[in-house]
Amino acid sequence: MNRFHIDQKKPFTSSIITSRFDRVSGIALPIVLIALLLMSIAAVGMLRMVDTSTLVIGNLAFKQGTTSVADRATETAITFLNQKEVAAQTGDVYLYTSNVNAGYFAANVPELDITGKSTDSSRKLVDWNNDNCAYAESGSYSSCQKSFAVTDPASGYKASYIIMRLCKGEAKPGGTLADGTANTCVTPVQGGSTDMVKRSECDYADPTRCLPPGAGKAAVAKRPFYRILVRSTGPRNTVSYTESYVHF
């Protein structure tokens, strides 16, 4: 008969199991810490992504707001021009000379720097803030063109515009300037197509309704283009620039 003797004084333990357990416990701690670190980085990244998305959406909203205000300012300028253009057909000469207080220039302004970013000292700036172009250093520009302010008190947005008649000088289109040369203007291209001549008239259904009696397509074709530049500002220093060309 086989007999087994167990010494009661010594506990029945396994040194192999204990050593393996210790090694596993030591490896698990760094893994857990690394996992927590990765989760923290992911959480911070998600928060930053949400903040960035909110900021972008907010900036787009403000940008759309300034663009909308610029559209309304452009409509104001177009209404002003339409009234003066109709009056010109009956002999009014308002559009033949500049009126800086109304932001109107009867001749094209070359080298115009509407944003103020150019470094050319011969540039011409626009007085958008009615402060004599204080945003630029003295001597860094040749002239400061006044603009006409259009404010929307309800929304807090502001807009200013200038209008330039795309002509060589201040005179009747096709007339004679002070230097004896003809006052050439940018006018619609004349062609055989009726639609081309009628484009941008007062009424597409009846384009001659805004003309004086006896006037026709030839008179329409001689009318110059006008360039409308608008700068609008809003919250958080949001700024928008728009440019439009119109013909009556």
Radius of gyration: 37 Å
Largest sheet: 5 strands, mixed
Oligomeric composition of the shown chains: single chain
Shape: elongated
Mean pLDDT: 76
Task: Tell me the total number of β-strands.
Answer: 8
Structural class: alpha/beta
Q: What percentage of the residues does DSSP assign to strands (E)?
A: 15-25%
Q: What's the SSE pattern?
A: HEEEEEEHHEE
The residue fraction in helices comes out at 25-40%
**N- to C-terminal separation?**
125 Å
Q: How many helical elements?
A: 3
Q: Which regions are unreliable across 5 or more consecutive residues at pLDDT < 50?
A: 202-215
Protein name: Tfp pilus assembly protein PilX
Keywords: Membrane, Transmembrane, Transmembrane helix
Transmembrane segments: 27-47
Organism: Paucimonas lemoignei
Description:
The strands form 2 sheets. Strands 1, 5, 6, 7 and 8 form a 5-stranded mixed sheet that branches. A 3-stranded parallel sheet has the order 2-3-4, with no helix packed on it. Residues 202-215 have low confidence and may be disordered. A hairpin with a 4-residue loop joins strand 5 and strand 6. The chain is an alpha/beta fold and 248 residues long. The chain has helices at 15-88, 194-198, 217-221, and strands at residues 104-105, 112-113, 124-127, 143-146, 148-152, 157-165, 226-234, 238-246. The protein has a domain at 47-114 and 145-187 and 222-246.
Fold topology:
Elements lengths: L14 H74 L15 E2 L6 E2 L10 E4 L15 E4 L1 E5 L4 E9 L28 H5 L18 H5 L4 E9 L3 E9 L2
Parallel strand pairs: 1-6, 2-3, 3-4
Antiparallel strand pairs: 5-6, 6-7, 7-8
